[in-house]
Amino acid sequence: MPEANRPDWKEIVHERLRLPSSAREAIPEIAAHLEEIYDEALAGGLTATAAIEFTLHQVEDWRALRKSICRAKCKEGTMNPRTKTLWLPAIAVLFAAGLALVLVLKPHSKNSPPQGGHHRMLTSFLSSRSGPRLFDQSKFRNYLGKSGYVQADRIGLEQELKSTKTKHAF
Hints:
By secondary structure, the protein is mainly α.
């Protein structure tokens, strides 16, 4: 068969795969493989059109082939730009916020009373906001007392509450 009528397998593979520049080195290898199949189909008695169809059907899913080539060849790896710019920073911020909460509201041992009134700072900050209350502070204080975050300092809160009630009783 004359060379002018032969399909350009490199161009066909390039059009069907649309690989990024970092993975285009696979195109000649795939094209050479398809050309061998095409030549074998012609030698087997198929017409040129039937041989092209037969050869192209050897690749069942061009998208899957593209993905596997990109996974193997591309420098991007498993993390795409969205993962790098959105999810990793979000996870880092959530981790830092959780760590800050643990440090501020860390449970104290029974032998050593808490040094600061971190729970008081938190409740006073939340109660100092104007507008409707987001939650019942007494439930929050009870939760802190029951959960072990404030053991010895809870007595101080109760004394404060008693002193404010007696002041307003007059």
